[in-house]
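It would be a great kindness if you could assist me with a short task in structural biology. Thank you for your consideration; the sequence and its tokens are set out here.
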Amino acid sequence: MANHTHSRRLDSEIADSGMEDPVEQKRLDKMKGAVRTILECIGEDTEREGLIDTPARLSKALLFLSSGYQESATDVLKSALFDEPAASGIVIVKDIEFFSLCEHHMLPFHGQVHIGYYPGKHIVGLSKFGRMVNVLARRLQVQERLTEEIAAAVMEALEPRGVIVVAQAGHMCMAMRGVQKTGSQTVTMSTKGIFATDQAQRAEFMAMIKL
């Protein structure tokens, strides 16, 4: 009876996956098998009720959390560029929340990104900053590279006179394992253009985001 129930659950997982592409379905099935193997290796019973659907749930969650590989951050920004010759002052979008997975342990890190730029040729629809951060955060990351990639994407897409990006985040790999220190924050910065050469500009930005 248990085997029949398990078979029905597996059929349900496939039907509910929402993936009609056979290549994508094959990838999902492979991931589910890998998750079952991991569960068995840590001593769990993959047949018990609470875990029967876990391989499908975790596989679909990981596909969502890594969906940034399928998109281009610069293309997101370029989809909403506007010429605005009158825009000359600094533009800041702060407190952009993000979630990502550390590539070392695949544990979450979560925080906020603050972006500032001096327009050059273009300005961009402000909501695209949040979308662009999601694209880059939904990959296996380290905070240092994420910060640099955000700045590079803004620089490439907008061609501004300068870009500064500051990210602050808490890392579960420090809280849940290892040193097991909660409450710590890691702060990273990337500067390009006039922000890389003018300390006063950096200081103004830091004052405006109150860091």
In short: The mean pLDDT is 91.
